[in-house]
Protein 1
Amino acid sequence: MDFEKTILCIGAGYVGGPTMAMIAAKCPHYKLVVVDVDKEKIRAWNSDNLPIYEPGLDELVRETRNKNLFFSPEIEKGIRESEIIFVSVNTPTKTFGQGAGKAADLQYWEKTAREILASSTTSKIVVEKSTLPVRTASAMERILNENSKNIHFEVVSNPEFLAEGTAIRDLEFPDRVLVGSRETPEGIKARKEIVEIYANWVPREKIVESSVWSSELSKLVANAFLAQRISSINSISALCEKTEADIDEVAYAIGMDSRIGPKFLKASVGFGGSCFKKDILNLVYICESYGLEKVARYWESVVEINEWQESRFIQNMLRNMFNTVAGKRIALFGFAFKANTGDTRESPAIYIAHGLLEEHAKVVITDPKALGNAKKNLSTFEDRVSFEQDPYRAAEGAHAIAVLTEWDLYKGLDYERILKTMVQPAFIFDGRNILDHQKLFNMGYNVIAIGKAPLKHF
C-alpha cells in the first residue's frame, strides 16, 4: 500500500507508543514507525506482552500493528525515510551539575537532535513531544539547521496531555490538542501539517494553535496547576483531621462552585507519576534562572506539601499503632502511582514503603499490575520486603493494611474474611479514601483515613 506520508516517532515509551497507535488507527493513509534504542522494548511492542499497561492499548496495537504501525530498532533508516519526526525521549530531572534536582536533563534530547541531523537527507518537520523547558525549540533549531547539507528543519511543539490509566481515551477524545510553531511562513506551514494529522478525528475547535514558546510553557504550567490543586486539598485534609471536619464533604462543597469545579480535589497520600514533580521543579528552575525567586518559591511549595503529606501518612501510622511498627507485618494495597497503570515512578508508595522499612516493619506489597516495577524500586530491601499478587494472602498475619492505590479491586474485597486473618487490633489506613470507613469500623477495624476523624475502638 502507498501511504500519503511517513511519520516517525523516536521513543517507544508511555507517550510515543500509545500516541502513534492512535494516529495509526485514525489515519490508515499514514505510515507510522516507532523506533527506540532499547531493542527489548521494541521486541515487546511487537509481541503479545506490551511493555506498558494501559486500558485499551492492546486492542489498538493489535488493530494497527504491521498494517500501518511498525515498531523497529532501525533508527537511522526511520529518520531517513520519514517526513515528520515526533521526538518522545526521556527528559528526567538532572542529577548532576548546574540545576541538579530541578532542571531537565536534556542530554538524550540533544543526542536525538544530532542523530536526526546525521541521518537526514531531506528537509523535515521535527515535533517536540517530550516535556521540555520553554525555549528548547530554539536550541534544537540551531543544532539542526546549522548544517552543510542544504536541508531545513522546522521545529514544532506538540506537548502531550495524557493521564496514565486514561491515555487511550485522552488521545481519542482530547480536551485540546496544542500545536505551536514559529510565527513565520515556514513555521505556520509546518504547524498546519501537524494540525491536519489530528484533524482526522479531533474537532477543529479543540485544536489550539500558538507560538512555540507558549506551547512549550503551557505543558509545564498545566501540570503545575493540576498538582497545585492536589497539594491544596491535601493541606486542608490535615486541618480537617484537627477540627473533625470531613475532607470529602469540604471538597464536594467547594467543588460545586463553578469557578472551582470538582476535578483534582480528591485528598490522598499524595501525587506521583513521571510528570508532576519533574515538571514543577523544572518550572521552579526556569523561574530561578530569570530571577523570579518569589514565583519559584511559590511553585516549589507545591512539591514540599506533597512530600509533607507522604511523611504525615507514615507518622499517622506510627502514632496510631502504639508508636512502633518494628517487627509488624504491614500490607500495602497498591504500589502504582495511580489505578489502571503499572507505572510506579514517583509513587507515594515508594516513600511509604521506605519509611516503614526504616522503622523495621515487615512490608508485603500487593498490586494487580505494578509488582514488577515495585521489585525494582525496592531492590535494596529485597530481604526485608515480600510481594504477593493476592491481596488476601498479603493481609494474612498483618497488623495493618495501607491502601495506597485507588484500584477498584480493593473496594470489593471481603474485609470480614480479611479481618479474621489479621493480628488484632487490626488497622486500615486508607490513603485514597475509597473504602466504606463506617462499615469497616463496625466490622472491628480501626480505620484512619485522610482528612477525617479516626474511627478507633480504643
Note: The chain has 17 helices and 14 strands.
Protein 2
Amino acid sequence: MTSALIVDIDRRSSETLRSMLESASISVRAVYDPAELTDINTDSGFALVLVSPSFVGTSGMDVLDYLRSVVPDARLAVILDSKDDGEEENYRRRGAEFALIKPFSQKSVDDLLKMALAPKVGDEDAGFMGMIGKSPVMTSLFDTIRSLAETDASVLIHGQTGVGKELIASAIHHLSRRKQKKLVTINCGALSESLLESELFGHERGAFTGAFRAKAGKFEYGNGGTVFLDEIGEISHDVQIRLLKVIESGEVERLGSNHVIKTDTRMIFATNRDLAEDVKNGRFRKDLYYRINVIPVRAPSLTERKEDIPALAEHFMRTYAARYEREVTIIAPSAMEWLIKQKWEGNVRELENVIERGVVVAASNTLTLENLDPASERADGGEVGSISGVTYKEMVGQVMSVYEKRYFIRLLEDCGGNVSKAARKAELDRKTLYGRLTDYGIDPSLFRKKPNA
C-alpha cells in the first residue's frame, strides 16, 4: 500500500487530512512532535511527504531540508494556511513539488494524489540512467560509470553546483552488485554538525538533549548497499575523524555508545570544492582525502557540453508541461538559440529552473525567448522583456528572482566566495543563504580567489 507522512503541529487539520488520504487507500503516519522526526529515515518507504513549514524541529532544525535529506525519493508537498503564490514559489525552490491549502477539500487532496503519485513524466527520454547527453564528455562519463560499477572502490565525484553529481552516484549504485540493497544519500552541507553526526553514525537514547530513543545511522541503514555523501567538503574536523574510522575499518559507534557495529557499505562522495587546496590550507584532513579519492570522477559542466542543451531543454519542457498541465510542446528557435548561448553558471539545475519557469508563464504552446528571459539585461540598463499573458504577481516574481540572483552573485564577489562572511553582510542566516545559492545554482567556490602559482 502507498504510504504518506504528515508533519504538522496542527493535530485537528492533520487528522482531517489523514482521513481524506486513507479514504483514497493511502497508509498514513502523522508526526506532531519534533522528537519523532528522528524515526524517519530512508527505510520508511514514504511515497509522499506533506509538511507544514511552521513545524520547527529540535534545535531549530529546518524540517524541509531534513526531510529532503532523509527521504529523498518521496514527493514533497507543503501545507499552507492560505493561498500565496509568492510563498508557494519560495517552497518550490526549496524542493517542494506541490502545495496543499487549508481548509482541505477531498477534491484538492485527490488532485494532489493524482499528480504526486503519477509516474514521473519524461523517463522514456532520460538517456543513460537518468542522465541526458550524447556529447563526447558524457559518453566518456557513461563508460567510466559502467567500469566503476564493477568495483567496490570509493569514488569522489567532483563538479560544479548543478551538474548532477547525485545522478552519477545513483547510476554507479544501480549498475553495481549492490543494486538490490539500499542507496542511502545524505547532504552533508544541509545539516548542522551535531545533526550530521547523529544521521551518519546514529545515537543511543539520552546521548543528547532530545534523543528520546535510539536511532541507527546511515551506515547501519545502508549496510550491504551504498552510502552517498554529498558536499563532503563541508564537514567539520571532528566528523572527518569519525568518518575516517568508518572508511578504514567499517566500524561504527553510535553517539553515546562504546559498542562497535560492523558495517559493509560502498562509499561514494561528492564535492564542488577543491579538496586538494583545502588539504593544503588545513581545512580538510590529508589522510581522509586520500581515502575518499581512490577513484576521482569529474562531472562536466554544461558549458562543456552545449550540444546536449537542446535535448535537455526539450526533456524539461515535456516534464513540466505534464506536471503543470500546460500545452507547451515547442521551443521557439530564438529561445533555443538563447539557451545555447548562455553561460549556465548553475549548470543543468539552472537550465531546468529556467525551463520550468518558462513553461509556467507560457501563453501558448510555444516556449518563447520572453518566457525564458523576462528581465534580460541589456546595454540600456536591463529592460524587462514582454509580459504578455503574465499576471502582476508572476511578473513581480520573475523580476525579483532575476535581481535576487544578481544580488547574490555580487555579494559573493565582494566576499571572495566566503558564504559565512556573505551571510553576515546580507544579515541572513548562513544556512538560509546557502539554500538560496543552491536554488539559483550559484557555486560559491567559483568566487574564491585562487592562490598565485
Note: The two ends are 60 Å apart (CA to CA).
Protein 3
Amino acid sequence: MHSILIIDDEQAICTSLMFALEDQYQVFATTSPVEGLAIVRKEKIGAVLLDMRIAGVDGLSLIPGLLEISPKTSVIVMTAFGTIETSVNAMKLGAYHYLTKPLNLDEVRILIEKSLHFNDLKHEVERLHEVLRPEDSYAGIIGKSHAMKNLFGLIDKVKRIDSGLLITGESGTGKELVAKVCHEEGIRQRKPFSALNCAAIPETLLESELFGHEKGAFTGAFQRKEGIFEQTHGGTIFLDEIGEMPLHLQAKLLRVIQEREVVPIGSNRRKQIDVRIIAATNRNLFEEVSKGAFREDLYYRLNVIPVHVPPLRERIDDLPLLTHHFLQVYGLKLGKTGVHFHPSAMDVLYRHSFPGNVRELSNIIEYAVALSNDTLLNVHDLPVYLQERAFERVNDKEGVFLPSMLTLEEAEREFILHKLQLCNGHRKKTAEALEISERGLRDKLNKFLPSKD
C-alpha cells in the first residue's frame, strides 16, 4: 500500500482527506511544514498533497526540500488562489501537478493514482537504463578492460567529426553497435541511421538498395524506389561486410563518396546527398587489395580512421560484466529475476575461446536462462558443446580460472566453491582438501552463500 502525506494548515482539510483516502492508502497528515519534512525523512512517501499557503509559510518553498529528501515522491500542490503563473512556478520547482480548492475528491484520487503510476514508470525506466547502459560501459558498450578503454577513447575522438570510419573486427564483436554509438553521440544524431549488410543482399538487388531505381528501370521495377543514400540524407550509413561488395559496385560507391551525389538506376538525374559513411568488415581489406578483390582507391577512401573492435578472448576480464548484463537482459525478457551462474559454470565460460565473441555469449546466456528451472545456472544448463568442456579436465591440478580483476574475497569464494564441486558437495572432504576445519568451511559458505546452509 502506498503512503500519502497531507500538509495543510487547516485541520479540517487534513481530517477530511484522511477519511477519504484511508481505504486506498496509508495516510499521514500534519499542519506543520517542519513535521511534514520529518515524516518524509522517516517514511517512504509516494505522494504529498501540499497546501500553497501554510500559516505564513510559502508552500512552494517546501518543494525543493521535499524532493531533496525523497526525489521519487510526487508533490501535488493545493491552492485556493490558482493562477497560471503559480501553477507554472510549482511545476518548475518539481511539482507533479496542482489542485484548486474547494477540492473534488474524485479528482484528488485520480491525480494521486496518476502521480504514483508516473513514479512507477520512472523507476522502471531507471531500472531498464541500468540494464541497457550499465555503469561500466560507454553509451551501452560494456567493458572496462584496457582494450575497451582504448576503444572508448578512440570513439570519443571520432564521434563528433565527419571523417569516414572503417571498423574492423571478428564476427560478433559489436561493430554495428560501435557505428550506432558514433552516430547517436555525434553531430548527426537527430538524422537517420541506416545499416546495410552487403553480404546479405543478392548482387542483383544490392545496387538498387544502395542507389535506388526509377519505375521501369528493370523487370519488376513497378515503382520508383529511393536508395539508402537518399533515405539517409543528412545522417549516417553503416555498410557492414563491405569486403563482400562486388567490384563493379565498389567503383560506383567510390564515385558517390567523391562526388557526393547518386544516380538511381534508370535515371540520368544526379541527386546531391550528405551522409557520413561508416564501413565495417571482418576481413583484412589490405590483403584483399593485394589480391585484386577490393579496390585500392576505395579502401583508402573508407579507411580514413581505422577502428578495431577486439575479440572477447582478448578482453576476457570483461566476461563478468557482460555475463551480468545479459543475465539481467534475458531475466527481464523471460520473466526470471535473480538468475546467476554457479562458479563451475562460470569456470567453463572462462575456458571457452568464444569464436562467436559477444554474440555467442549472448546466445549462451539466453539459452541457459530460457531452459533452466532454477535461478542458479549450473553446467548442465549450458549448451551441450560447452557442457562437454566441463569434462575435459585431466585432473584437479588444472584448477580454476581466477580473472585478475577479482578482489581477494571474490577469488577466495571462487576457489572454495570450486573445491566443493570437486568434492561433489561433501563438506568434510572439502574442508580436508582446503586444510581448514569443518566449522571454518561452514562459516565461509554461510558468508558466500547466505541462502544455503
Note: The mean pLDDT is 88.
Protein 4
Amino acid sequence: MEDERLDAVILGASGFTGKYVVRYFLAQLDRDGGQRINIGIAGRSRSKVAEALRWAAAPSLPPANIPIIEADVTSPPSLAALCRRTKLVLNCVGPYRLYGEPVVSACVEGGVDYLDITGEPGFMEKMEAAYHQRAEETGSLVISACGYDSIPAELGVIFHSKQWKPPSVPHSVDSYLALESDKRIVGNIGTFQSAVLGVANVHDLQKLRRSRPRRAKPQIPGPPARKAKLIEHISSIGLWALKLPSSDAIVVRRTQTFLAEDPQGLPGVNENSDFAEKRKNFWSEVKPLHYGVYIGYKSLLSVAGTIFTGLNVLLLGSFGWGRSLLLKYPEIFTLGLFKKTGPTEEEVKSATFKMTFLGHGYSDESCLLQQKTKPDMEIVTRISGPEVGYVTTPITLVQCALILIDQRHSLPKGGVFPPGIVFGPTDLQERLEKNGISFEVLSKRTIS
C-alpha cells in the first residue's frame, strides 16, 4: 500500500559517493515530534551494500530497520520492483551517460520521484527531451544536478541576482571556484570518467540540441556577454581564473529558460495560497543575467596543471584507445588530481571550497534608456562550504530529498527539471546554511 512505501531509497549505496550519502542521511532520519524518515539502500550486491551501511553507521551499529534492496541498472525488472517500494530514488550510480537512463525510465513509469548528482549535460538534456512529457503525466518529478553540480551554482546565481534591488539591474555574473586544503585535492575515477565520456559524445549533444524546438530566451538588458578569456587575473578577488566548460552554466541557463516561459515559477501540485504567493514574490526578485564559470587559483603553476589535464582529456578523449589510456592511468594524465581509489578520509575532511560570484550591472535601469551600456555597478557574493564531492554533495542531495519528502505538495506534479526552478522558492538555502554552507554578500560598489 502507498503508506507502506519507503520515503526514499539510495541507489548505488556501496559506491564511493553513495556511501557518503548514506552516512549523511543516517544523521537526518529522526525528526521533531518523534517522527522518523523511512529509507532503504540499494545496489547490485547485497553484501557490498551491507558493508557500506556498516561503514556509514560507524562507530555505532547500523540501524536494523533499514532494508537492503538488490537492484541492478542493467535489470529493468529489479528497478521496477525497487520503484514499487519507494516514493523517491536518490541515484548515485554513474557515469549517468552509461547507467542513468534505465533508472529515470523506471521512476517515470512508476510515478516515483528521482534525484541524482550528475554533472553531465548530455544526460540531463536527453532525459528532458525523452521523459518530460511522460513524467508530467505520471507525476514523477525528475531533477538532476542536485550535488555540488549544480546546487551551489543555481542557488548562488539566484542569491546574487536578488541583491540587485530596484532601480539597479544585473547584467552578468561570473563564478570563481577556489578549492582549498592543507592536503592534496583528489577526485575519484567516476568523476573523471564522466568528463572523458562527455568529450567523446559532444557531437551527440550538439545533434540533440539541433533537433529540439527553440524555447524562450531570458531577456537580459544591455550588451551581449563579454568574450571570455581562457586565463586572466582577477585582481578584485586575488585569483588567476581559468575558463571552464562547466555543466553549471548549462544548468543555470535551463532554469532561466523555464523562468522565461513561466515568470512566476512552477505551481505546486497542491500548494496552498501562502506558498503560491511566496513563490510569485520570490521569482519577481530574480533577474536574468549572463553567467560564466571559472576555476580560480592563487598561482599560475596550478593553472598550468589544470590545462595539462584538460588538454589530455580533449586530445585523447575523442578516440577509443585514448579513453582507455586516460581511464587506465588517471593519476598520470591528471598529475594526481584523480585517482582510482579516490581521496582518503583525511583528504576529504581537510578540503573546503569558496565560490565567489563577481557581478556587474547598472545602478539604475534608466541608464540603458540613455544608451549608457557600460555597467557602472559591481556586487560580489560568495558561497563557501566543506569538501565538494563527498561532504557538500551529500548535504545538497539529501536536503533536496528532505524537501521532496516534507513539501511535495508545494512542488510541481511532475516533469524533468533543473534544480533551481524547483527548489528556488523553498527553504533549501536556509537548510544548507544550517549544515555548514554559507551565503554572504562581500561588497557592493559603483565602478567607472
Note: Residues 388-407 form the longest helix (20 residues).
